[in-house]
Automatic annotation (TrEMBL):
Phylogenetic classification of the source organism: Eukaryota, Viridiplantae, Streptophyta, Embryophyta, Tracheophyta
Keywords: Methyltransferase, S-adenosyl-L-methionine, Transferase
Name this polypeptide is given: O-methyltransferase domain-containing protein
Database matches in PROSITE patterns: SAM_OMT_II
Start and end residues of each O-methyltransferase C-terminal domain: 154-359
Length: 377
């Protein structure tokens, strides 16, 4: 019988010089990529500031033109937003950079002499809708002078967490500062509306936990807009209570089925079989969150639930857009609102709930940024 042929492994004899040269080439490429990465990070302030610029110039609405989204040159955009003139070359420089981040789509002519720009899905978030809302106000709100002054002090949050960088820069906490600056406060409210409306639509389409509730409190409900949307979707809720600071609810409009109640969530919360809050816990310390949640627990009957919508951090620090957005938001909270206020993981929220007595906890990932957290008594 013929013996099977044994294949001998192919030996590749590389000289030490070749191996060394290959390793040096790979090492050089790695170093080059690292240098590019650090240059990008160091210059990244160009991104939010350029985004701020196109919002101030109303570029998105100029391109959108009621839904046409026809590619326009920088000169055409400038003529639409500022007829008295300007520098189209500098506008194009901004548009090109934001194109590299997916805000605009660039259309290059056949002879490569002209560039035109249309809106991507990201760019469309800056378009003013029929209710006068968009993410544009959110961009402007984040880059106001008082907030920008805080960022050089971020390292101070590490050295002295008892005082926020915003306070170090402006001599008082952000919320009290807003209260003395009507224009700043109005912009913040408009920014929150621009973010809230699309979130609430997605939230109400994907979450049915309000079924069976008869009395619902919205903690930190401001003008009552969220409560109005919830009651419209769930007419079985007999009464809505918009709960916020007395000076806030004093300006709230009349809403059918809703009563406005002023108070302090750190002292007590109106009783109900359901309590809703949105973006409240993330700006407070663990001890403050426990106090808020303990007051919620006291206000609920057995079987009642607290429904909180909050940013929830993932376990791993990967480089996805979602993780980066959440971690960036966490640093924003640390810098502007509370040095020890923070975004938390799902497990951290669960432990907070258990520490005040909630026996059941569920997390619903309906939105890419905000998570619905349900605590049941």
């Amino acid at each position: 019988m013929a013996q099977p042929i044994r294949k001998q492994p192919i030996k590749q004899n590389f000289s030490p010089e070749i191996i060394k040269a290959t390793m040096e080439t790979e090492s050089s490429e790695t170093r080059n990529q690292a240098r590019l990465a650090i240059l990008e990070l160091a210059n990244m302030i160009s991104v939010p500031m350029s985004l701020h610029a196109v919002v101030r110039l109303n570029v998105a609405d100029a391109i959108w033109q009621g839904g046409t989204n026809l590619p326009l040159s920088a000169s055409e955009i400038l003529a639409a937003v500022h007829p008295s003139g300007g520098d189209p070359e500098n506008l194009q420089r901004i548009l090109r950079m934001l194109t590299s981040y997916g805000v605009f789509a660039e259309h290059l002519s056949a002879d490569a002499t002209e560039r035109r720009y249309s809106l991507t899905e990201i760019g469309k978030t800056l378009v003013t809708d029929g209710e006068g809302l968009s993410y544009a106000s959110y961009v402007l709100q984040h880059h106001q002078d008082a907030l920008m002054r805080a960022w050089p002090f971020v390292h101070e949050a590490v050295l002295d967490p008892t005082t926020e960088p915003f306070v170090k820069a402006n001599d008082e906490p952000a919320y009290s500062y807003y209260g003395k600056q009507p224009e700043m406060n109005d912009l913040m409210l408009k920014a929150m509306s621009g973010v809230t409306v699309p979130f609430m639509k997605a939230f109400l389409n994907g979450y049915d936990g309000f079924q069976g509730l008869e009395r619902l409190v919205d903690v930190g409900g401001s003008a009552g807009d969220c409560l109005k949307m919830i009651l419209h979707k769930y007419p079985s809720i007999l009464q809505g209570i918009n709960f916020d600071l007395p000076e806030v609810v004093a300006k709230a409009p009349k809403i059918p089925g809703v009563i406005h109640v002023g108070g302090d969530m750190f002292k007590s919360i109106p009783s109900a079989d359901g309590i809703f809050m949105k973006w409240i816990l993330t700006t407070w310390t663990d001890d403050e969150c426990k106090l808020i949640m303990e007051n919620c627990y006291k206000a609920l009957p057995v079987g009642g639930k607290l429904i909180a919508c909050e940013p929830v951090l993932p376990k791993d620090s990967d480089d996805s857009h979602r993780t980066r957005a959440l971690l960036e938001g966490d640093i924003f909270v640390m810098t502007i609102y509370r040095a020890k206020g923070k975004h938390r993981t799902e497990e951290e929220f669960k432990q907070l709930g258990q520490s005040v007595g909630f026996s059941s906890f569920q997390a619903f990932y309906i939105d890419y940024f905000y998570t619905v957290l349900e605590f049941q008594k």
